[in-house]
Design a protein that fits this description.
about 325 residues; mainly alpha; Rossmann fold; Tyrosyl-Transfer RNA Synthetase; 2 domains; 3-stranded parallel sheet; two-stranded parallel ribbon; binds adenosine-5'-tetraphosphate
Amino acid sequence: MRIFSGIQPTGRKHLGNYIGAIRQYVEGQDRGDPAIYCIVDLHATTVAYEPAELRRNLYDTTAILLAAGLDPGRCVLFRQSDVPEQTELTWLLSSVTAHGDLNRMHQFKDKSARQKDLVSAGLFFYPVLMAADVLAYRADEVPVGDDQRQHVELMREIARRFNERFGETLVVPDHKIPEVGARIMDLQDPSRKMSTSVPGDAGRVLVLDDEKATRKKLGSAVTDSGREVKRGEGKEGVANLIGIYAVATGKAEDEVEAEFEGAGYGDFKKALADAVVEYLKPVRERYPEIREDEAGLERILAEGAAKARALASETLADVREAMGVGVPRS
Ligand code: AQP
Protein backbone atom coordinates (compact mmCIF):
# COMPACT_ATOMS: atom_id res chain seq x y z
CA MET A 1 0.00 0.00 0.00
CA ARG A 2 1.59 3.24 -1.09
CA ILE A 3 0.51 6.35 0.81
CA PHE A 4 1.03 9.96 -0.26
CA SER A 5 -0.08 13.28 1.15
CA GLY A 6 0.99 16.91 0.91
CA ILE A 7 0.80 19.74 3.38
CA GLN A 8 1.31 23.47 2.88
CA PRO A 9 4.24 25.23 4.57
CA THR A 10 2.04 27.78 6.24
CA GLY A 11 3.93 27.38 9.51
CA ARG A 12 0.81 28.03 11.55
CA LYS A 13 -0.62 24.55 11.56
CA HIS A 14 -3.89 24.35 13.47
CA LEU A 15 -5.88 21.67 15.26
CA GLY A 16 -7.86 20.99 12.05
CA ASN A 17 -4.65 20.21 10.14
CA TYR A 18 -3.45 18.08 13.03
CA ILE A 19 -6.63 16.03 13.46
CA GLY A 20 -7.61 15.85 9.77
CA ALA A 21 -4.17 15.14 8.34
CA ILE A 22 -1.06 15.03 10.53
CA ARG A 23 -2.25 12.33 12.95
CA GLN A 24 -3.13 10.19 9.90
CA TYR A 25 0.40 10.70 8.52
CA VAL A 26 1.93 9.37 11.72
CA GLU A 27 -0.37 6.34 11.72
CA GLY A 28 0.33 5.71 8.01
CA GLN A 29 4.08 5.35 8.47
CA ASP A 30 3.85 1.71 9.45
CA ARG A 31 1.30 0.77 6.77
CA GLY A 32 2.82 2.69 3.89
CA ASP A 33 5.15 0.98 1.46
CA PRO A 34 6.37 3.61 1.58
CA ALA A 35 4.41 6.46 3.21
CA ILE A 36 5.42 9.63 1.36
CA TYR A 37 4.81 13.11 2.78
CA CYS A 38 5.54 16.28 0.87
CA ILE A 39 5.71 19.88 2.05
CA VAL A 40 4.15 21.68 -0.86
CA ASP A 41 6.04 24.96 -1.18
CA LEU A 42 5.03 25.36 -4.83
CA HIS A 43 1.36 25.28 -3.87
CA ALA A 44 2.08 28.03 -1.35
CA THR A 45 3.22 30.38 -4.14
CA THR A 46 -0.26 30.45 -5.70
CA VAL A 47 -1.50 33.14 -3.28
CA ALA A 48 0.19 36.35 -2.10
CA TYR A 49 3.25 35.49 0.05
CA GLU A 50 6.67 36.72 1.24
CA PRO A 51 9.66 34.67 -0.06
CA ALA A 52 11.67 34.89 3.20
CA GLU A 53 8.60 33.92 5.21
CA LEU A 54 7.97 30.94 2.95
CA ARG A 55 11.43 29.55 3.77
CA ARG A 56 10.90 30.03 7.51
CA ASN A 57 7.46 28.51 7.34
CA LEU A 58 8.82 25.52 5.51
CA TYR A 59 11.18 24.78 8.37
CA ASP A 60 8.38 25.39 10.89
CA THR A 61 6.11 22.90 9.15
CA THR A 62 8.88 20.32 8.74
CA ALA A 63 9.68 20.61 12.44
CA ILE A 64 5.99 20.28 13.41
CA LEU A 65 5.71 17.08 11.38
CA LEU A 66 8.85 15.61 12.96
CA ALA A 67 7.72 16.69 16.44
CA ALA A 68 4.34 15.04 15.77
CA GLY A 69 6.11 11.73 15.22
CA LEU A 70 7.14 11.45 11.58
CA ASP A 71 10.34 9.43 11.46
CA PRO A 72 12.48 9.87 8.32
CA GLY A 73 13.59 6.26 8.77
CA ARG A 74 9.99 5.05 8.40
CA CYS A 75 8.64 7.48 5.80
CA VAL A 76 9.78 9.70 2.94
CA LEU A 77 9.58 13.38 3.91
CA PHE A 78 10.58 15.99 1.34
CA ARG A 79 10.01 19.44 -0.16
CA GLN A 80 7.91 19.61 -3.32
CA SER A 81 10.20 21.98 -5.24
CA ASP A 82 13.11 19.53 -4.85
CA VAL A 83 11.39 17.06 -7.18
CA PRO A 84 11.05 18.69 -10.63
CA GLU A 85 9.42 15.49 -11.96
CA GLN A 86 6.23 16.57 -10.19
CA THR A 87 6.13 19.93 -11.96
CA GLU A 88 6.76 18.36 -15.38
CA LEU A 89 4.02 15.85 -14.71
CA THR A 90 1.66 18.75 -13.91
CA TRP A 91 2.06 20.02 -17.45
CA LEU A 92 1.65 16.60 -19.01
CA LEU A 93 -1.51 15.91 -16.97
CA SER A 94 -3.00 19.25 -17.98
CA SER A 95 -3.73 17.72 -21.38
CA VAL A 96 -6.20 15.30 -19.78
CA THR A 97 -7.67 17.80 -17.29
CA ALA A 98 -10.97 19.46 -18.18
CA HIS A 99 -11.02 23.23 -17.82
CA GLY A 100 -14.66 22.91 -16.71
CA ASP A 101 -13.63 20.59 -13.84
CA LEU A 102 -11.09 23.15 -12.56
CA ASN A 103 -13.78 25.82 -12.76
CA ARG A 104 -15.95 23.82 -10.36
CA MET A 105 -13.37 23.52 -7.55
CA HIS A 106 -14.70 25.00 -4.28
CA GLN A 107 -11.22 25.84 -3.02
CA PHE A 108 -10.48 27.94 -6.10
CA LYS A 109 -13.75 29.81 -5.69
CA ASP A 110 -13.11 30.45 -1.96
CA LYS A 111 -9.44 31.40 -2.25
CA SER A 112 -9.83 33.54 -5.37
CA ALA A 113 -12.56 35.54 -3.62
CA ARG A 114 -10.08 36.28 -0.81
CA GLN A 115 -7.24 37.52 -3.07
CA LYS A 116 -6.90 41.29 -3.02
CA ASP A 117 -4.52 41.98 -5.91
CA LEU A 118 -4.14 39.03 -8.22
CA VAL A 119 -6.01 35.79 -8.79
CA SER A 120 -3.12 33.80 -10.24
CA ALA A 121 -3.39 31.14 -12.92
CA GLY A 122 -1.37 29.04 -10.44
CA LEU A 123 -4.31 29.08 -8.04
CA PHE A 124 -6.55 27.79 -10.83
CA PHE A 125 -3.98 25.08 -11.63
CA TYR A 126 -3.47 24.10 -7.97
CA PRO A 127 -5.51 20.88 -8.29
CA VAL A 128 -3.47 19.70 -11.31
CA LEU A 129 -0.22 20.15 -9.35
CA MET A 130 -1.85 18.26 -6.49
CA ALA A 131 -2.88 15.47 -8.87
CA ALA A 132 0.70 15.29 -10.20
CA ASP A 133 2.04 15.09 -6.62
CA VAL A 134 -0.02 12.01 -5.89
CA LEU A 135 0.03 10.31 -9.30
CA ALA A 136 3.82 10.68 -9.61
CA TYR A 137 4.12 8.12 -6.80
CA ARG A 138 1.35 5.80 -7.97
CA ALA A 139 -0.11 6.18 -4.50
CA ASP A 140 -3.05 3.99 -3.48
CA GLU A 141 -4.15 6.09 -0.53
CA VAL A 142 -4.27 9.84 0.15
CA PRO A 143 -4.86 10.80 3.82
CA VAL A 144 -6.58 14.21 3.88
CA GLY A 145 -9.28 16.20 5.65
CA ASP A 146 -12.77 16.43 4.21
CA ASP A 147 -12.06 19.79 2.51
CA GLN A 148 -9.78 17.96 0.05
CA ARG A 149 -12.41 15.42 -1.04
CA GLN A 150 -13.16 17.27 -4.29
CA HIS A 151 -9.47 17.55 -5.21
CA VAL A 152 -8.96 13.81 -4.70
CA GLU A 153 -12.06 13.10 -6.82
CA LEU A 154 -10.53 15.25 -9.57
CA MET A 155 -7.16 13.47 -9.47
CA ARG A 156 -9.00 10.14 -9.78
CA GLU A 157 -10.73 11.49 -12.87
CA ILE A 158 -7.41 12.73 -14.32
CA ALA A 159 -5.79 9.31 -13.76
CA ARG A 160 -8.76 7.50 -15.32
CA ARG A 161 -8.79 9.83 -18.32
CA PHE A 162 -5.04 9.43 -18.80
CA ASN A 163 -5.29 5.63 -18.70
CA GLU A 164 -8.18 5.61 -21.19
CA ARG A 165 -6.39 7.93 -23.58
CA PHE A 166 -2.80 6.61 -23.34
CA GLY A 167 -3.08 3.10 -21.85
CA GLU A 168 -2.90 1.80 -18.24
CA THR A 169 -0.09 3.87 -16.68
CA LEU A 170 -1.33 5.60 -13.54
CA VAL A 171 -2.85 4.31 -10.31
CA VAL A 172 -6.29 5.71 -9.40
CA PRO A 173 -5.90 6.66 -5.71
CA ASP A 174 -8.46 6.55 -2.89
CA HIS A 175 -8.82 9.23 -0.27
CA LYS A 176 -8.54 8.38 3.42
CA ILE A 177 -10.70 10.80 5.39
CA PRO A 178 -11.02 10.21 9.15
CA GLU A 179 -14.45 9.21 10.51
CA VAL A 180 -14.29 11.70 13.37
CA GLY A 181 -12.54 15.04 12.95
CA ALA A 182 -12.59 15.13 9.14
CA ARG A 183 -13.73 18.76 9.23
CA ILE A 184 -12.88 20.65 12.40
CA MET A 185 -14.91 23.84 12.42
CA ASP A 186 -13.93 27.40 13.34
CA LEU A 187 -14.36 27.96 17.10
CA GLN A 188 -16.01 31.35 16.57
CA ASP A 189 -18.08 30.44 13.51
CA PRO A 190 -18.92 26.74 13.41
CA SER A 191 -20.51 27.10 9.97
CA ARG A 192 -17.05 27.31 8.36
CA LYS A 193 -14.00 25.09 8.70
CA MET A 194 -11.07 25.95 10.92
CA SER A 195 -8.65 27.53 8.49
CA THR A 196 -5.22 29.14 8.26
CA SER A 197 -6.13 32.09 6.10
CA VAL A 198 -9.21 33.45 7.90
CA PRO A 199 -8.22 36.73 9.64
CA GLY A 200 -8.05 36.70 13.45
CA ASP A 201 -6.76 33.88 15.62
CA ALA A 202 -9.70 33.23 17.96
CA GLY A 203 -11.33 30.63 15.71
CA ARG A 204 -8.35 28.27 15.58
CA VAL A 205 -6.12 26.56 18.09
CA LEU A 206 -2.61 26.41 16.69
CA VAL A 207 -0.53 23.30 17.32
CA LEU A 208 2.15 25.57 18.80
CA ASP A 209 -0.16 27.75 20.91
CA ASP A 210 0.85 27.73 24.57
CA GLU A 211 -1.42 26.31 27.25
CA LYS A 212 -2.90 29.69 28.18
CA ALA A 213 -3.88 30.58 24.62
CA THR A 214 -5.32 27.10 24.01
CA ARG A 215 -7.48 27.30 27.14
CA LYS A 216 -8.66 30.81 26.27
CA LYS A 217 -9.67 29.91 22.71
CA LEU A 218 -11.49 26.73 23.70
CA GLY A 219 -13.09 28.44 26.69
CA SER A 220 -14.58 31.15 24.48
CA ALA A 221 -15.66 28.81 21.67
CA VAL A 222 -19.17 29.53 20.41
CA THR A 223 -21.82 27.05 21.63
CA ASP A 224 -25.57 27.79 21.79
CA SER A 225 -28.18 28.95 24.28
CA GLY A 226 -28.97 25.39 25.43
CA ARG A 227 -27.21 23.34 28.12
CA GLU A 228 -26.87 19.83 26.76
CA VAL A 229 -23.55 18.42 25.57
CA LYS A 230 -25.12 16.70 22.58
CA ARG A 231 -24.93 16.79 18.80
CA GLY A 232 -28.00 17.86 16.84
CA GLU A 233 -29.83 20.53 14.85
CA GLY A 234 -28.64 24.03 15.83
CA LYS A 235 -25.80 22.57 17.96
CA GLU A 236 -22.98 22.73 15.39
CA GLY A 237 -20.62 24.50 17.80
CA VAL A 238 -21.05 21.89 20.55
CA ALA A 239 -20.89 19.04 18.01
CA ASN A 240 -17.53 20.39 16.81
CA LEU A 241 -16.18 20.46 20.37
CA ILE A 242 -17.48 16.93 21.01
CA GLY A 243 -15.56 15.76 17.92
CA ILE A 244 -12.36 17.45 19.10
CA TYR A 245 -12.72 15.98 22.60
CA ALA A 246 -13.39 12.52 21.15
CA VAL A 247 -10.21 12.58 19.07
CA ALA A 248 -8.08 14.06 21.85
CA THR A 249 -9.17 11.40 24.36
CA GLY A 250 -9.59 8.47 21.95
CA LYS A 251 -13.27 8.06 22.93
CA ALA A 252 -16.32 7.64 20.67
CA GLU A 253 -18.62 10.67 20.32
CA ASP A 254 -21.52 8.74 21.93
CA GLU A 255 -19.30 8.03 24.94
CA VAL A 256 -18.48 11.73 25.22
CA GLU A 257 -22.19 12.63 25.25
CA ALA A 258 -22.80 10.01 27.96
CA GLU A 259 -19.82 11.26 29.99
CA PHE A 260 -21.20 14.81 30.09
CA GLU A 261 -24.89 13.99 30.53
CA GLY A 262 -26.28 16.47 33.02
CA ALA A 263 -23.10 18.58 33.04
CA GLY A 264 -23.07 22.16 31.73
CA TYR A 265 -20.97 23.68 28.96
CA GLY A 266 -18.56 25.14 31.51
CA ASP A 267 -17.51 21.71 32.86
CA PHE A 268 -17.31 20.30 29.36
CA LYS A 269 -15.12 23.13 28.06
CA LYS A 270 -12.79 22.80 31.04
CA ALA A 271 -12.37 19.06 30.37
CA LEU A 272 -11.94 19.79 26.66
CA ALA A 273 -9.16 22.31 27.29
CA ASP A 274 -7.37 19.82 29.60
CA ALA A 275 -7.64 17.12 26.94
CA VAL A 276 -6.40 19.29 24.05
CA VAL A 277 -3.47 20.66 26.09
CA GLU A 278 -2.42 17.07 26.91
CA TYR A 279 -2.99 15.93 23.32
CA LEU A 280 -0.70 18.57 21.78
CA LYS A 281 1.84 18.68 24.61
CA PRO A 282 4.34 16.14 23.19
CA VAL A 283 4.49 18.04 19.88
CA ARG A 284 5.00 21.39 21.58
CA GLU A 285 7.68 20.02 23.85
CA ARG A 286 9.68 18.36 21.08
CA TYR A 287 9.31 21.21 18.58
CA PRO A 288 11.87 23.88 19.69
CA GLU A 289 14.90 21.60 19.61
CA ILE A 290 13.99 20.15 16.21
CA ARG A 291 13.22 23.58 14.72
CA GLU A 292 16.53 25.03 15.90
CA ASP A 293 18.61 22.67 13.75
CA GLU A 294 17.97 24.01 10.24
CA ALA A 295 20.96 22.15 8.79
CA GLY A 296 19.50 18.94 10.20
CA LEU A 297 16.11 19.73 8.68
CA GLU A 298 17.75 20.36 5.30
CA ARG A 299 19.55 17.01 5.53
CA ILE A 300 16.31 15.17 6.21
CA LEU A 301 14.56 16.94 3.32
CA ALA A 302 17.44 16.25 0.92
CA GLU A 303 17.48 12.55 1.78
CA GLY A 304 13.71 12.44 1.34
CA ALA A 305 13.92 14.20 -2.03
CA ALA A 306 16.49 11.70 -3.33
CA LYS A 307 14.16 8.80 -2.46
CA ALA A 308 11.15 10.61 -3.88
CA ARG A 309 12.89 11.43 -7.16
CA ALA A 310 13.86 7.80 -7.69
CA LEU A 311 10.16 6.85 -7.52
CA ALA A 312 8.74 9.83 -9.44
CA SER A 313 11.23 9.58 -12.30
CA GLU A 314 10.02 6.02 -13.08
CA THR A 315 6.43 7.21 -13.40
CA LEU A 316 7.45 10.22 -15.44
CA ALA A 317 9.41 8.04 -17.88
CA ASP A 318 6.33 5.83 -18.36
CA VAL A 319 4.08 8.86 -18.83
CA ARG A 320 6.43 10.41 -21.40
CA GLU A 321 6.65 7.13 -23.27
CA ALA A 322 2.87 6.63 -23.26
CA MET A 323 2.31 10.20 -24.50
CA GLY A 324 4.96 10.02 -27.22
CA VAL A 325 6.98 12.82 -25.66
CA GLY A 326 10.80 12.99 -25.67
CA VAL A 327 13.38 10.41 -26.73
CA PRO A 328 11.70 7.02 -27.40
CA ARG A 329 12.71 4.10 -25.15
CA SER A 330 13.74 1.84 -28.04
N1 AQP B 1 -10.57 22.33 9.48
C1 AQP B 1 -10.00 21.21 9.09
N2 AQP B 1 -10.41 20.01 9.59
C2 AQP B 1 -9.81 18.85 9.20
N3 AQP B 1 -8.78 18.80 8.32
C3 AQP B 1 -8.34 19.97 7.80
N4 AQP B 1 -7.35 20.27 6.93
C4 AQP B 1 -7.30 21.61 6.75
N5 AQP B 1 -8.25 22.21 7.50
C5 AQP B 1 -8.92 21.21 8.16
C6 AQP B 1 -6.47 19.28 6.31
O1 AQP B 1 -5.12 19.63 6.63
C7 AQP B 1 -4.27 19.18 5.57
C8 AQP B 1 -3.27 20.24 5.25
O2 AQP B 1 -3.95 21.35 4.70
P1 AQP B 1 -3.23 22.45 3.85
O3 AQP B 1 -1.98 21.95 3.33
O4 AQP B 1 -4.24 23.05 2.89
O5 AQP B 1 -2.84 23.48 4.94
P2 AQP B 1 -3.34 24.90 5.22
O6 AQP B 1 -3.45 25.68 3.95
O7 AQP B 1 -2.47 25.40 6.30
O8 AQP B 1 -4.77 24.59 5.83
P3 AQP B 1 -6.08 25.30 5.65
O9 AQP B 1 -6.56 25.65 6.98
O10 AQP B 1 -6.93 24.41 4.80
O11 AQP B 1 -5.79 26.64 4.93
P4 AQP B 1 -6.76 27.53 4.12
O12 AQP B 1 -8.18 27.24 4.57
O13 AQP B 1 -6.32 28.87 4.45
O14 AQP B 1 -6.52 27.12 2.72
C9 AQP B 1 -5.19 18.77 4.41
O15 AQP B 1 -5.23 17.36 4.32
C10 AQP B 1 -6.52 19.31 4.79
O16 AQP B 1 -7.58 18.50 4.32
